[in-house]
């Protein structure tokens, strides 16, 4: 298969596949000697599906790399369980932060009923007020939770 064909089957862009190759998550395919096109096979397709599934669960490239390495480790799945447990803790923490953000937005929304002039808008006045919530909101928006980039 050519790169465009495999991208179509997986539902991702050609650039994403090249990025996974560059990151070492996907082995670079052999090139056709006649036309120098990359030739992808079923192994590449299966690996891309695995990577895409992990990404859909919010796993980092490093976590995926660890899982891919563990597939060849005959020592059992304790390390895999540990990795998923840690990832789950990060997800639970993100959920708590997003729920706190939701509450803050609901409170903010109550500051203005839309009938005031813009100069009297409670939402704008509240946003102009200094708070310590900025760092938390920045962390949620950037995906950095507990020093863990997603």
TrEMBL record:
<dbReference type="InterPro" id="IPR009061">
    <property type="entry name" value="DNA-bd_dom_put_sf"/>
</dbReference>
<protein>
    <submittedName>
        <fullName>Cd(II)/Pb(II)-responsive transcriptional regulator</fullName>
    </submittedName>
</protein>
<dbReference type="InterPro" id="IPR047057">
    <property type="entry name" value="MerR_fam"/>
</dbReference>
<dbReference type="GO" id="GO:0045893">
    <property type="term" value="P:positive regulation of DNA-templated transcription"/>
</dbReference>
<feature type="domain" description="HTH merR-type">
    <location>
        <begin position="1"/>
        <end position="70"/>
    </location>
</feature>
<dbReference type="Pfam" id="PF13411">
    <property type="entry name" value="MerR_1"/>
</dbReference>
<dbReference type="GO" id="GO:0003700">
    <property type="term" value="F:DNA-binding transcription factor activity"/>
</dbReference>
<dbReference type="InterPro" id="IPR011791">
    <property type="entry name" value="CadR-PbrR"/>
</dbReference>
<dbReference type="GO" id="GO:0003677">
    <property type="term" value="F:DNA binding"/>
</dbReference>
<keyword id="KW-0238">DNA-binding</keyword>
<dbReference type="InterPro" id="IPR000551">
    <property type="entry name" value="MerR-type_HTH_dom"/>
</dbReference>
<dbReference type="GO" id="GO:0046872">
    <property type="term" value="F:metal ion binding"/>
</dbReference>
């Amino acid at each position: 298969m050519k790169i465009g064909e495999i991208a179509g089957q997986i539902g991702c862009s050609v650039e994403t596949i090249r990025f996974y190759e560059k990151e070492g998550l996907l082995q670079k395919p052999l090139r056709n000697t006649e036309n120098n096109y990359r030739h992808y096979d079923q192994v590449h397709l299966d690996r891309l599906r695995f990577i895409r599934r992990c990404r859909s669960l919010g796993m980092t490239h490093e976590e995926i790399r660890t899982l891919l390495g563990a597939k060849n480790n005959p020592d059992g799945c304790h390390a895999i369980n540990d990795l998923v447990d840690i990832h789950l803790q990060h997800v639970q923490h993100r959920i708590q932060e997003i729920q706190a953000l939701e509450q803050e937005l609901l409170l903010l929304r109550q500051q203005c009923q839309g009938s005031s002039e813009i100069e009297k808008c409670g939402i704008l006045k509240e946003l102009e007020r200094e708070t310590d919530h900025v760092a938390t909101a920045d962390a949620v928006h950037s995906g950095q939770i507990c020093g863990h980039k997603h």
